Amino acid sequence: MCHIVGVIGSRSLPARFAPLVDQVVSLFLARGYSVASGGAVGADSFALSAVLRQGACSRSVVYSAWSSVSGFPASARPDIERLIAAGGQVVWGSASVGSPRPVAVSALLGRNRHLVAASSVVVAFLHGPSRGSLYTIRQAVSRGVPVIVFICGSASLPPDLARHCYVFNKPACRQAGR
Known about the structure:
By secondary structure, the protein is an alpha/beta fold.
């Protein structure tokens, strides 16, 4: 059975937390997990960069809301293309570039549900408000998928979610990468 860690988090996660994401991805890869993410900027792109650096593309999957690479943020497209070229997988969504907002939001939430459904564990990196990440954490909790949350800076986890997650919010986590 293939174990998958879903790596999610805030799009606003500062680059100083990239080493923390890299360490977590490395830990799970060393334990035989594959890595899934959503291909967004921030935590997702840091996870994808870690996979690419470690040459673990064949053990990585990106869950996309979009029907093509052009739907990803411009800054993420080169890494998505490198992942595909190196044997990584993309599970394509249904939204196309220019889709109406309700269609795009529905596709993004669907992407998050698919990522959770495929994951054995979810690791979230929260920084500031992140409705999509909280939605994904709720999905994981409701499915009984273990969730590890790193509070990185000015973020909080609602108490109803926190009691179902392993939460790291010590100053060392908030200062990672310094």
